[in-house]
Amino acid sequence: MNSSSMSENLIIDQSASKAEKYATLLPQIEAVVGAESDLIANMANVASMIHETFHFWWTGFYRVIGEQLVLGPFQGPMACTRIRRGRGVCGTAWEQGETVVVPDVEQFPGHIACSSASRSEIVVPIKVNGEVVAVLDIDSERYSTFDDTDRLWLEKVAAVLANVWR
Ligand code: SME
What is the pLDDT of residue 5? Predict the structure, then answer.
């Protein structure tokens, strides 16, 4: 690995559809993650790349550490640092081992409001050998931002990270 690697330039056509943006984004994520072995560095760049592509309110990771999710690299306002299993949208996605899409966070029992501006949310677990090791959490300040297109592509992003997880 080149220790003096220059930063990459994200190439996204902002006028493209959501699916087209994800289709352009994913190979760039694969290239960045494939060129670096450090997980924190990779989560940091993946959070940035998703955030820069879609300008969501908050994009980031929580890692499973013991009985809690602990805040990892993110883009956006400061956030809750620890979430218990089964709590909030993140803890629910961890407990269920499945992606959770929430169109209106106020309707989600136990939603943890790290930011009062958040209106909708998607949380995608990152699974290694069937075990959740982290979650990718994205918040929007608009209702119903996330749908099956986001689920499909963000699960691919989670799989890219799962493949290099250690
Ligand atoms: N709303 C999340 C907590 C994390 S923040 O949104 C960044 C939840 O309910 O799990």
Answer: 55
The CATH number of 17-163, from 1.10.730.10, 3.40.50.300, 3.30.450.40, 3.40.50.170, is 3.30.450.40
Look at residue 115 in the predicted model and tell me its pLDDT: 87
Ligand 1: centre distance to CA 112 (Å): 5
pTM, two decimal places: 0.95
- Ligand 1 pocket residue status of 111, Cβ below 6 Å: yes
Q: Which atom of ligand 1 is nearest to the CA of 111?
A: 9
Residues (pLDDT < 70) of the chain are 1-8
Residue 72 Cβ inside 6 Å of ligand 1? The answer reads no
In this structure, the number of other CB atoms found within 10 A of the CB of residue 143 comes to 13
How many Cβ atoms are within 10 Å of 52's Cβ, its own excluded?
15
Give pLDDT, residue 7.
62
